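#struct-pred

JT: dropping the chains for the assembly here, can someone run the whole complex?
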Amino acid sequence: MTFGRSGHREKMLLVDITSMIDVVFLLIIFFMVAAQFARTTRAELNLPQEPGEQDQQAEEAGLVINILADGTIIVNERAVELDELAALVQAEIDALPDHDARQVKLLLRADRNNDTSRLNQVLIRLQDMEVGAARLATEVPR
Amino acid sequence: MRIRARQTRRRVERITLNLASMIDVTFLLLIYFMVTTVLAKQEDRLSPTLQTERESASGELSDFQPQIVTVLLVDGQPAYQLGPNIYRDKQALREALGGLPKTAGVFVHVHNQIPVGFAVAAIQSARDAGFDQVTYVPAK
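RK: done, full complex below.
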């Protein structure tokens, strides 16, 4: 009575993970792009919760003026006073081909918990510079 | 004379590359970016025209009188005044504006010491009521 060898052969389990690595890298790139790295123009604040004009056309923001809850005016991550703000707006106007203040693009982001004193000061100064319209940023409620 | 070609045996050397560490780092990066990604809140805008108090009172606009909404404090609380009527919320203001003529637009006269959200709601209500011409008049 002889027993033959069972003839086991160790089989290597081959799993091709090339596709999985591709997908993982795609996901990494997606989250890297989607991550909001230091948005320098838009300060962290609570905007008024209104649906807005719901205009589907994308529009250039232009100069973004942030007004925090304590009344601080932030432009490009820097706190400015009204005179300096006026200078920045004037620079935007001067950069336009026809120097028309009515065509300058401004976006005002005011904290909803702040009172309108500071906002009114800014708007009066803008109106003195003959800026015809100002866009008020809102947060679309979910 | 037989000539037999030699069949040289070539050993194919397999080059192995251990990807385990790279996959570990890749997953760590993925988890990091998934956790740290902050989705931005959707923003929109309202675009009222600007006018100061002195211009709005000069009567230079047109023969048609625009509607005037005054945002002010009444008994210490913010309210909307449209003519002789006082409204405390934007829905009531929108309903009141809805029945008014819209040809000449609406002026939103905003006093100081009013919450910004309350003032912006007046502009939104005017838009929702169908006014295309909305003018923001800041109080001095």
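JT: nice. The CA atoms of residues 98 and 131 of chain A lie 14 Å apart. The mean pLDDT of chain A is 82.
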